[in-house]
């Protein structure tokens, strides 16, 4: 079997890989020094497009339109960009063994890749209902969304089951974004999740009440406090019904499951130090193994702002951690600034668009107009801990207003009165 040698290898072909490659090129990597090894068949792309524009009924997004780095306003990097820079894209290649001691990766086909420096950018994989032995969860037309192949299959099913019934299992990011896009495709949509409100890891009950109300007005049925316990399929093996724990059953032509993800760290178990479910790194994304870095979803890193270590699954961190690691690798002993990340999450669905910055801990103050029937709703929430604002959420903000809430979360200004803060609302952030 073939053996190849590279100075630098990025393992994984997602968002982090593309932004890391751009930073390598910026820093002057020489031709044939760098390779990206990916099990996907396409060059790195902006993954958030898959749950949004990729599934639109009209003018859906397609590659090469959303290759990185367009998601952050940068130049688009199509496959020819990599070849032009002498960066080898090794696609459709699954690595099944990683030996960090000998600096060797082995593919499913038996090919080996030697490296001097490795960046682990393997990302996450979706949690599947078959993992929990849910009855009938292997039926056709039950979809998960992580990669472009998943999106292609879902898109074909949406066309084949035109104006049908869809059940979305899960009330997080994927659940909210895909329920919206299925409704835009004129499906009869039901959302099912066990929690008391949607997006519970971030949303307060007050924030969630707006989105649940808005989705209901759009005609999406929301079923809370229960889970899918089984699926019934027809003679062709296609799902026809979702059985719920509370005894109800829902007709379904399509089921989409979004119940979370797991960082892909299995290849490195026992070889590298782990923490909080991810690979432990320092502020430059160095792991406990020399010449091995980990970025994006798989990295558990020091979050300087909160004097804590965390793992963050979001595209913004995937981009920025990749750039930080490459700068550290190529700095040749020069001192770099430590990674000083401000957590950032956002979403878009229907005509809505929200952004969140900081930490969602402590007391909360809801401000603004959160009436789901308002023609242009604009509202937000501050999180206050130890007398300081530590987090801020805003729906319907302008670019300047979003910058203002980001600044508040970074600066953490003191608050003397929650009543006054509620009254000031967005103007509090604008004055910082």
TrEMBL record:
InterPro entries: FAD-oxidoreductase/Apoptosis, FAD/NAD-bd_sf, FAD/NAD-binding_dom, FAD/NAD-linked_Rdtase_dimer_sf, MDHAR3-like_C. Keywords: FAD, Flavoprotein, NAD, NADP, Oxidoreductase, Redox-active center. SUPFAM superfamilies: FAD/NAD(P)-binding domain, FAD/NAD-linked reductases, dimerisation (C-terminal) domain. It catalyses: 2 monodehydro-L-ascorbate radical + NADH + H(+) = 2 L-ascorbate + NAD(+). Residues 342-429 form the Monodehydroascorbate reductase 3-like C-terminal domain. Its EC number is 1.6.5.4. Residues 6-322 form the FAD/NAD(P)-binding domain. GO terms for cellular component: cytoplasm. It is an enzyme of class 1 (oxidoreductase). Its cofactor is FAD. GO terms for molecular function: monodehydroascorbate reductase (NADH) activity. Catalyzes the conversion of monodehydroascorbate to ascorbate, oxidizing NADH in the process. Belongs to the FAD-dependent oxidoreductase family. PANTHER family: APOPTOSIS-INDUCING FACTOR 1, MONODEHYDROASCORBATE REDUCTASE 1, PEROXISOMAL. This is monodehydroascorbate reductase (NADH). It comes from Dillenia turbinata.
